[in-house]
Specification:
Layout: E1 18-35, E2 41-59, E3 64-70, H1 89-101, E4 107-113, H2 123-139, H3 145-155, H4 159-164, E5 167-171, E6 176-180, E7 186-192, H5 199-211, H6 227-235, H7 238-244, E8 246-247, H8 250-256, H9 259-269, E9 274-277, E10 283-288, H10 291-302, E11 309-315, E12 321-322
Parallel strand pairs: 1-8, 3-4
Antiparallel strand pairs: 1-2, 1-12, 2-4, 2-5, 5-6, 7-10, 7-11, 9-10
Helix pairs in contact: 1-2, 1-3, 2-3, 5-8, 6-7
The protein binds adenosine-5'-triphosphate.
The site of adenosine-5'-triphosphate has 24 residues, from helix 1 and helix 2.
């Protein structure tokens, strides 16, 4: 299948620019299994793509040039933590696709970030997925969806989901995806509590807590435990989804960042149906009954003084796509 992500002819503007966007994710279920010999943990997770998007614009150019604006950039909101060199996943995605396709890695890439960095929302993964889609179109590499998914998995555990979007069960280190047909809308408020948390540090803290007995050992057969949350995402009601939210990384994230406890409490007091730390944090994902309730909840949490950024979002939304 050629240009699988475009669903049509290449959309290239007058100045040759191609624009793609990709969504943030929330882990509505995250069970962490044992540490593997390769240093990753075995996961069982249910990903939900939500309506907070980063945009990548790719233009013809010589060599790779990269600019970043918005969340996590030097001039943007929050601490500047997004690199603009080879360490950026966008850069790595461009080089990987060029190598795969046997073309020169020539592109000017502008990343416009709305997804806070290092927040457990897979912002870097979204940018990498959007870059693959944009450059596939710019370079005419005609990669299949399968090709792009394979490249995505090489870039990071969450990148295949950023490409796929919607709802999916993730196993392995999160990169092995089974799509879940769940179109029922759910509304959330994302509250980012303080500065970014490093994902490896949070996993390390969980390992330490399991060793010293302050966290329960990993659950055997954790894959099965995803069924109730998948059923709730498919058919509701919101109370069923609220009852099934779970994240093994919440306890270590709270231990590293004690103010997260206050943030979770603030969400409950403001009327969230449930609240959970997303991924490795420090984002709190607060579930609302519907869109109106989410808008009210966002207003109330913005005034609570515990979050640096608050956003009302909904899911599921599609993965990385070209925008017209
Ligand atoms: P995870 O996917 O592990 O949940 P996260 O969502 O918590 O990660 P990201 O926003 O992806 O966090 O950023 C994690 C780190 O990756 C950042 O601190 C930054 O150093 C690096 N990084 C590389 N490329 C990017 C990018 N395009 N956007 C944001 N961070 C990036």
């Amino acid at each position: 299948m050629s240009n699988a992500m475009t669903g049509g002819p290449r959309r290239i503007a007058g100045d040759g620019a191609v624009v793609a966007r990709a969504p943030a994710k929330v882990n509505v279920h995250l069970r962490v299994g044992p540490l593997r010999p390769d240093g990753f943990h075995e996961l069982s997770t249910v990903y939900l793509a939500v309506s907070l998007f980063d945009t990548v614009t790719a233009r013809p150019g010589e060599g790779i040039a990269l600019t970043v604006r918005g969340e996590g950039s030097a001039a943007g909101q929050g601490p500047a933590s997004v690199p603009t060199d080879r360490r950026n996943l966008v850069w790595q995605a461009a080089e990987l696709l060029a190598r795969h396709a046997g073309v020169a890695a020539d592109a000017h890439l502008d990343v416009d970030k709305s997804i806070p960095a290092a927040a457990g929302l897979a912002g870097g993964s979204a940018d990498a997925a959007a870059t693959l889609v944009a450059l596939d179109a710019l370079w005419g590499t005609r990669a299949t969806r399968g090709d792009l998914a394979g490249l995505a998995a090489q870039l990071g555990s969450d990148v295949p989901f950023s490409l796929m979007g919607g709802v999916a069960l993730g196993t392995g280190r999160g990169e092995q995806l089974s799509p879940v047909l769940a179109r029922r809308r759910c509304d959330w408020v994302l509250g980012i509590a303080g500065e970014g948390l490093s994902t490896p540090t949070v996993y390390g803290e969980l390992d330490a807590m399991r060793t010293d007995g302050t966290a329960a050992p990993h659950a055997e057969g954790a894959g099965d435990a995803a069924e109730p949350v998948i059923a709730a995402l498919r058919s509701g009601p919101t109370s069923a989804l609220a009852a099934t939210l779970t994240n093994d990384l919440q306890a270590p994230a709270v231990r590293l960042r004690p103010e997260l406890r206050r943030a979770l409490q603030a969400a409950a007091e403001a009327g969230a149906r449930a609240a959970v730390v997303s991924g490795s944090g420090p984002t709190v994902a607060a579930l609302a009954e519907d869109e109106d309730a989410a808008v009210r909840l966002a207003a109330s949490l913005a005034g609570a003084g515990v979050f640096r950024t608050v956003r009302a979002v909904h899911g599921p939304v599609p993965g990385a796509r070209l925008v017209g």
